[in-house]
Amino acid sequence: MQKKPNILFIASNIPTPTRKSNPIVLDIADLISPFYEVSVIHPKEIAPFPLNKFNKYKHLDRLPDFWTHNGFPIFTLPYYRLPGFSLSFSLLQYAKQKINNYFINHKLPDITHAHFVLPDGYFAYMIYKKFGIPYVISLRGSDVKYMMKSFQSGFQKKKYDRVIHNATRIITHNSFQRDFIFNHYQIECQVIPHGIESSFLEEKKLIEKKDTLIITVVGSLISLKRNDWVIKAVQAYSGSKKITLRIVGDGFMRTALEQQAGNADNIIFYGQQPHKKVGELLHESDIFALPSARETFGLVYLEAAAKMNAVIAVKDTGVWGVFKENEEMLFANDYPSFEKKLHFLIDHDKTRIALAEKAYERTKNHYTWNHITANYHAIYEKILKKRGKG
Q1: Mind listing the pLDDT tens digit for each residue in 80-96?
Q2: CB–CB of 31/373 below 8 Å?
Q3: How many angstroms separate the most distant Cα atoms in the chain?
């Protein structure tokens, strides 16, 4: 039996035994594990005293050095991070010895895949410089945010530049991120969205003339998600349709949003719900509206499309560029355009149905996990073949 190639993930953004987080990186690891031997390094931030006493860092004190996920090992890599942006990653090079010690006890990977530019990508860069192991970068929305800030800070920019210029391949999750890298580094990236399980797809009969509509929002109730826009737009609607707004999720802004909604009986707060229940609510829904200011991708947009919702999102973030504007989804660039587009969808049934049908078809044909995994597989195999290991 041929030995499987080894892929080392370096990922800060994974769930740990002491902290819940988005599991998407580990989901990808699970999906590629039939083809590759997967291991994970989890950078563990060490904050200096007295910052380490803040709630933000308490979970790190209890984090074990090693644990497993579905059979593959996860090791922590401690590194020092200073407060403030300009100096935050200035001490990354002092993790060099810890990386060397790791490879004394573990074999070198065939490919390293880092899931942030900093710090993850810098550790992949250090492995490349020391051992010649090629690395892949998955760029995220927060990377773009901090890279833009780094353009005013030559010190941090040098680290970003080293990671980007030495990567064998850069993956982005939407077109805005791809264009950002090309415009600033003249490097071509490959857009690979996140995926959904094909079992989540669910067709339904879309009624052309409908007097009662359900609008759904799913996401954390935080300022970044701009749930207040949706409430305000629903309250501003003065047409003939009867609207129910369902808000699914929880967060520190819930009280303020409930106050904004007032005593309106057509605005319902569901709180946090299990994934199965979210699917049921989306299946009953007609329109999904989440005008989030920043998303690396926003898997919930895919899930809404998979349940045949017409979707309104925001330009230059999330699924923008992944779905065709005005043909498969609508994209707003500010509150007035969001309100206008939402009211248009409410009043124009044919447009609502056409968007829902086309977004559903694109999701089914391109964005289930079997399609997404094939993209990762193709990237890895190309690199392995070039190294003579394919």
Answers
A1: 888 777 788 888 988 99
A2: yes
A3: 70
